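Work package 3, deliverable 3.1, input record:
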Amino acid sequence: MKEDKSFFEQVWEITRLIPEGRVTSYGAIAECLGAARSARMVGWALNASTNINPHVPAHRVVNKNGLLTGKFHFEGYNIMQDLLQSEGIIVIDNKIKDFEKHFWNPSELIEE
DNA sequence: ATTTTGACGACGT
DNA sequence: GACGTCGCCAAAA
């Protein structure tokens, strides 16, 4: 039933499930989808998500380093950073402070 | 159908 | 530990 959706939609779905004040990495989402080695695809999917109907909290998705790699893809320069800080996440120099502390595992909420 | 790329990740140097 | 290269998979040109 879920395979009907494109890889993108699956990424958006998981990204939307990210609780506030939590962040995750592209690889984690990719792994949850079964495309563990396709972390890049997650980023690609999120790229399209910036133009879809429900707002996808792509700002909560960062790379494994906790670095806001995609912040440049947002409307403004510090949009992503500002949003994260609004949720209680400390961002310093485009990087999430205590990244692993705010890290959220998609498999934690998603049950196959 | 083929080639290029792309918001990453892991490994090698 | 910083920098470089390869690998993965899927979509766009």
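The beta strands of chain A are 24-25, 61-62, 91-92, 95-96.
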